[in-house]
Request: fold
Amino acid sequence: MQTPKSTQFFLGANSPSGFYSLYNHLIDLQTDNTLYIIKGGPGCGKSSFMRKVADGIQDAGLDVEHIYCTADPDSLDAIYIPALKVAYVDGTAPHIIEPNYPGVMEEYLNLGEFYETEPLKEKKAEVMALTKTYKSLYQRAYHCIEAAGSVNSDASASMIDDKVIAAVKKRTRGIISREMSKQKNSTGIIRYRFLSALTHKGHISCFNTIETLAQRVYHLDNILGLAHYMLEDLVKAAEQAGLNAVLCPDPMNPEQFAHLIIPSLSLAFLSSNNQIQYEGESFRHIRLDAMVDANRLKSQKPRLRFAKKVSALLLDEAVSTLADAKLVHDELERLYNPYVDWGGVYDLAEEHLQRLLS
Reply:
């Protein structure tokens, strides 16, 4: 039996604009079958439920995509099972998910039913105080991330003009002609995922996913944010060539693209910047930043160094604050955990696992 593939991504980002969600991209409404939306409060077993299902599916020899939580990257926010076209997702804040086609595509799972509510009511004051503190810490963290994003964008914006973008796109056309010239009748499916996220542990990147899905990597220098202009053309070409792909926005600037993975070609395009550095093996290393005029780049180096330093300090403060928030959330979960029917949670997970495998 072929070893099942385990891949890891994020669907949320702690971004300069606050929490940025890609959770509506977890499944494709046209091609997938079922999305189970899990509801329930802190510590009720949402991640544990999904991990039990995921482990059982992998033990049965099927691939599983794991979606990590940005608040706690050791926990799961979702899983996707490609062979069955089935997904499970934590549908609670900050990534509230509601059905588009209830009963047809989506079903609710209420793990809140496993709470012992009467003894929990005695913890009301503590729960409310911890929840308030948790939310205020996240607001502080987002202020720091917003400031860091502003410093970075201001420093790089003056370096990019139409001439530089044209040079990037010319290089992109050459790559497309080599890698994706064969046209097909079908249109490729593009799935959106974050490959990296800013968490209470700092920046975490799921580069092990690349090792699973791609043997050839184009490594793109992206200090100035030029990778987006290459990737937007590459993803269009992949889609037109009928190639399914995973497109990964930049968590610090989610409106721009940072990475592209094309599993059927065993090919990936990964960018590095001041926050995230890819250090794996590369098939090609494209120095996008070198496409800026050398004299212009030299004149702006002091400004870029200043932006890098200030941004790093702001992000360090954000990470420290996210770590404080994690401690508060851990305390909140400790309040709830003793009043959860864990046997019921695991029995329900086993029931779903058997249903999926049947």
Summary: Residues 160-291 form one domain. DSSP finds eight helices and 16 strands in the chain. The longest strand covers residues 253-262.
